Amino acid sequence: MKKLSIFFSSRKSWTLPYIIFSAIFIVIPLILIVVYAFTDETGKLTFENFAKFFTHHEAINTFVYSIGIAIITTFLCLLLGYPAAWILSNTHLNRSKTLVVLFILPMWVNILVRTLATVALFDFFEMPLGEGALVFGMVYNFLPFMIYPIYNTLQKMDHSYIEAAQDLGANPIQVFFKAVFPLSMPGVWSGVMMVFMPTISTFAIAELLTMNNIKLFGTTIQENINNSMWNYGAALSLIMLLLIAATSLFSTDNKDHSNEGGGLW
What we know:
With 265 residues, the chain is mainly alpha-helical. The protein has helices at residues 2-9, 16-37, 48-55, 57-89, 93-104, 111-124, 131-156, 160-167, 172-183, 185-201, 204-209, 217-226, 230-258.
């Protein structure tokens, strides 16, 4: 009892609930995905699931198409989100907080409800559902994930760099590209990751906004799992996880390089 009381009185014991949660809902599911991906229905070790993917042209085309949709969505979110974050960061403090809440407010609504509202909007204006509706829905759903990290970075940025650039004779365009944009790159990369990763794995948005006529990679995984093809579905999930991990490593490398040389020039 004395050892237990000492253990629970230490700060290390506070991490125990998080360790248990991570083990049950993160570590064990990932281990199961790896095990199922490298085994067949009888439990024997095999690479047939991966060979099936690389020889299945439809699955590869869906994979490439999903990456393309994710890149387009991320680019549009960045194109729309950066100016919005810049305006918010240069607005009066009380007004900026109100505007930030208005931008984040849609995130309080379930993503399926927001997507169904988008479907109703397209129906109201008698616009066809398809690839355009898919991209619109993706941007609408994930735009706040791009705005908020960029806004946080710009809000915390040391404005003495901007003043120094202005004192050195830089015009507003030079100030932005030489000082503001390089210093905001950590927020940009965070926003890119927060948009790209869920976009490439989603399936419900594509099903609702294209009437299930356009499949994304997440849809392929879901269909295999629903049809009890656990092994092949796990292999597809592992491929997607590896892509997300590679993207995360690429983002980390870019953050490290952006911090070299002071980050201003």
